[in-house]
Design goal:
With 358 residues, this protein is α/β, with parallel strands linked by helices. The protein has 2 domains: 65 residues, Phospho-2-dehydro-3-deoxyheptonate aldolase, domain 1 (Alpha-Beta Plaits, 2-Layer Sandwich); 254 residues, Alpha-Beta Barrel (TIM Barrel). It contains 12 helices and 14 strands. Strands 7-8-9-10-11-12-13-14 form an 8-stranded parallel barrel, surrounded by 7 helices. Strand 9, helix 5 and strand 10 form a beta-alpha-beta unit. Helix 3 packs parallel to helix 4, helix 6 crosses helix 7 and helix 10 packs parallel to helix 11. The radius of gyration is 22 Å and the shape is globular. It starts with a strand and ends with a helix. Bound molecules: phosphoenolpyruvate and manganese (II) ion.
């Protein structure tokens, strides 16, 4: 449930509501909406729900107490109707601009990273990606350069001015990764690693949460809820494909998840057509499709010589292919940017408009 405070509610009234919630063994999360403060009540309320709702309704300064129908609370649009905009260095994610996260699957050397970084920065990327700690299916393949790669990423940020994103695989890596990176990535294999979600929820860095390859949208949002309820509101969701019976593609990119998420949650949504398809020549069309479906951005793997890549070469764009994708994606984004937002509310607004004309 959440408590909607009156527009005129005082600081003292807001604090009294929060203390009451705490005294009932629940946790208050307040959010300053466009006009008023709303306070989510999270925790295991059980059979006391009606009792708690009527007690809270009676407190001074409270306008209404509304149940949240979804199991995810802080991440739901019901509680937080405005889009979350993640700001990091000069980049804004989720404000209607197009975010492009690009770079190599793995940081392989300083030269390889800088060559890629310089190129993608010059051709419109807004965030630089690069894996340092790599979750590889085989223990015999390249596992990443680790801290050495983090240092190169930080140098690449100085060179290009772009914020950098890299994956953190374990709770005990969070400290070192957040020291160097601007955005922490939680990979598909770790989407339900709850101790990692809680750990990244405690740091002052935005987190990009990739969808588990076998996770439903609801499980994914519940994972995001772990991060937000641990204190970190800056979460970006990334659809990177789910496993289906299809084998021509590495995964199946769930395009409908994009507008669905815009309806269910206020968090920004990015698509990763590289991991979703596994094939370089499918990346551009699926990046375009993701943006057309309303994604706030794309994440793509780029390598100056994909044939020599130490990981994911088959799905990495060449520099020229990245440039070609960028020139196509901009106009698509220009066409659809007004369609951003909640597709259900937008459709309802349209119906109202139509009705008024008759
Ligand atoms: C990655 O982005 O480098 C990665 C490993 O992605 P995923 O977790 O989606 O497989
Ligand atoms: Mn990869």
């Amino acid at each position: 449930m959440f408590v909607v405070m009156a527009v005129t509610a005082t600081e003292a009234e807001i604090n009294a509501v929060k203390s009451h919630i705490l005294s009932e063994g629940m946790t208050p999360f307040d959010h300053q909406g466009a006009e008023r403060v709303v306070i989510a009540v999270v925790g295991e309320v059980g059979p006391r729900k009606q009792h708690l709702m009527s007690k809270l309704s009676a407190l001074a300064g409270v306008e209404a107490v509304t149940p949240i129908s979804r199991p995810f609370k802080l991440t739901s649009r019901e509680f937080h109707p405005e889009d979350t905009v993640v700001r990091v260095l000069g980049a804004t994610i989720g404000d209607g601009s197009l975010t492009v996260m690009a770079g190599p699957c793995s940081v392989e050397s300083r030269e390889q990273l800088f060559e890629t970084a310089d190129f993608v920065a010059a051709h419109g990327a807004t965030v630089l990606r690069g894996g340092a700690f790599k979750p590889r299916t085989s223990p015999y393949t390249f596992q990443g350069l680790g801290v050495e790669a983090l240092r190169y990423l930080a140098e690449a940020r100085e060179r290009t001015g772009l914020p950098v994103i890299t994956e953190v695989m374990e709770p005990n890596q969070v400290d070192i990764v957040q020291e160097y990176a601007d955005i922490l990535q939680v990979g598909t294999r770790n989407m339900q690693n709850y101790s990692l979600l809680t750990a990244v929820g405690r740091v002052a860095r935005p987190v990009m949460l990739k969808r588990g390859y076998g996770a439903t949208v609801e499980e994914w949002l519940m994972a995001a809820e772990y991060i937000v309820s641990s204190g970190n509101p800056n979460v970006i969701l990334c659809e990177r494909g789910i496993r289906t019976f299809e084998t021509y593609t590495r995964n199946t990119m769930d395009l409908a998840a994009v507008p669905l998420l815009h309806h269910l949650t206020h968090l920004p949504v990015v698509v990763d057509p590289s991991h979703a398809t596994g094939k370089r020549w499918l990346v551009k069309p699926m990046a375009l499709a993701g943006v057309a479906a309303g994604a706030d951005g794309v994440m793509v793997e780029v390598h100056p010589r994909p044939d020599e890549a130490l990981s994911d070469g088959e799905q990495s764009l060449t520099l020229a292919e990245f440039e070609s994708m960028m020139s196509a994606v901009g106009p698509i984004h220009g066409h659809v940017r007004d369609l951003h937002g909640d597709p259900v509310l937008a459709a309802q607004a349209l119906e109202v408009g139509v009705g008024e004309k008759h």
